[in-house]
Amino acid sequence: MQLRKQLDINKVLFLDIETVPALPNYKKLDDRWKKLWEKKSQSLVKENITAADMYDRSAIYAEFGKVVCICVGIFTGYPNNPSLRLKSFAGDDERKVLSDFADLLRVYFSTEQSRLCAHNGKEFDFPYMSRRMLIHGIELPYLLDTAGKKPWEINNLDTMELWKFGDFKSYTSLDLLAGVFDIPTPKDDIDGSMVADVYYQDQDLDRIEKYCLKDVVTLCQVFLRLMNLKTIPDDRVIFPE
User: Fold this and answer.
1) Per-residue b/e over 2-28, b at no fewer than 16 CB within 10 Å?
2) Kind and range of the H or E element at 12?
């Protein structure tokens, strides 16, 4: 595989983000934002279902949601003595979460050899974080500052895109790819549809963080299989203390 030959896996930062609606429910929106959400959600609203009913879907839109957790993983010592090291950025203060993550990119991932990798990252994670950073007035780090770049000048990776091999007919979840490659599922506790309730109702950010970290581990293992490489043993995966 040409990418495998060109790529330094130790310079790829693997990541996953968790997002929630900006406010706990539709009633908390002021009149202006209620109108904006009603307009945005028109394509989602069906008979007997209102914009208010669909507000939980606002988490997937950067204009109406916020990032509460970013988890990252990086391989060290690959291929001779590989480990997978994990780190998380989580909190109620979205600006701090994004700023701390941006600082990591600026310090350690700012060269032409550096790359980001996420599942569906090109459609979701990367643009979502970039938009939220701009909303908070955070300068975009090198790997997210893609304005004006041609597609072939953007080196970030997407495991869903790698799996498609040019076929754009359907979405393939990370959970499905984990099943295909016989990798343990990260969805053994919660899944993405439950994150908002766990955040606002249970107020259990630690649970979301653990789920996100497991997603990153699965992402990394799937990526290795997509490169036709062996996965990392569990005892070589180093979680944050």
Assistant:
1) eeeeebebeebbbbbbbbbbbbeebee
2) strand 12-21
Place of tokens 């090198």: 142
Q: Three-state SS for 24?
A: coil
Whether the ω angle into residue 233 lies within 30 degrees of 0, i.e. cis, is no
Q: How confident is the model at residue 84 (pLDDT cuts 50, 70, 90)?
A: very high
Q: At 216, is the secondary structure helix, strand, or coil?
A: helix
Quote the strand ranges of 55-119, DSSP E.
Answer: 65-76, 83-90, 115-118
List Cβ neighbours of 123 (8 Å cut-off, separation of 6 or more): 158
Helix (H) or strand (E) holding 21: strand 12-21
Q: For 51-72, how does the pLDDT look when each residue is reduced to its tens digit (9 = 90+)?
A: 899 999 999 999 999 999 999 9
CB of 227 closer than 8 Å to CB of 219:
no
Residue for token digits 């009603």? 38
Q: For the domain with range 2-22+64-238, which CATH number is right: 3.30.420.10, 3.40.50.300, 3.40.50.2300, 1.10.10.60?
A: 3.30.420.10
Q: 172-192, pLDDT tens digit by residue?
A: 999 999 999 999 876 777 888
**Burial label, 126 (beta-carbon count in 10 A; 0-12, 13-18, 19+):** buried
Round the CA-based radius of gyration of the chain to a whole number and report it. Answer: 18
Sequence-distant (6+) residues with CB within 8 A of 96 are: none
- Of the candidates 232, 210, 214, the residue with the CA atom closest to the CA atom of residue 223: 232
Name residue 12's beta-bridge partners: 115
